[in-house]
Amino acid sequence: MDTHKKHLVALRDLPPQGKDFLVCDLAVWSEPIKEFHMDCRLEGIPEMELNILPSTEGWLLRGAVRASVVVPCSRCAKETPLAIAEAFEDYIQMPDEEGALPEDALSEGDDHLLFDHGAVLLDLAAVAWEQFALALPPTPLCDPGCKGLCPKCGQDLNAGPCGCARDEGDPRLAKLRGLKLKKS
Ligand SMILES: [Zn+2]
Ligand SMILES: [Zn+2]
Question: How far is the CA of 146 from the centre of ligand 1 (A)?
């Protein structure tokens, strides 16, 4: 992906006190969302702040990813706005000098690293995308008490009961449901 090549950082050229980076290029997120056919709409441009601090053995990454998205509720499929704000920390091990560092072509390794004529390049776009994907909740809810759709007729039960025969299930769970209803 061409977007990736725009956000490469030469790790060995970083100053010893580290350096701050900001990625706020829409394509970093919009392209993979399109590519993976994800049901996720971006509201505005996400951003990733990142500080990279060199150490003797590698590089310490500390950052945060922020985004506003609209995703379908995992129970009722209603469009649900989400504000994502996740801090993260990661560590990149210095590649082994003895190891096969490809000398000529730009080639991709682990940890979103690329190697080019001995330079170690970190792909910030790949880091930004990965952290965004990790921060997305696997089962987003429009409301913690969302009743979802009736498994029999498909009606949105938040709008009211549908008249299908209810399976009351475990009475202890029913009690919990009652508690949740009182809170909201
Ligand atoms: Zn819902
Ligand atoms: Zn029903």
Answer: 5
Residue position matching structure tokens 């590519």: 35
Q: 51-77: per-residue pLDDT in tens?
A: 999 998 899 999 999 999 999 999 999
Cα-to-chain-centroid distance, residue 83: 12
- DSSP assigned state of 94: P
**Cβ atoms < 10 Å from Cβ of 113:** 19
pTM (two decimals)? 0.79
According to DSSP, the β-strands at 47-54 and 119-123 are unpaired
State the distance from the centre of ligand 1 to the C-alpha of 156, rounded, in angstroms: 8
What separation in Å is there between the alpha carbon of 176 and the centre of ligand 2?
22
H or E segment at 70?
Answer: strand 58-72
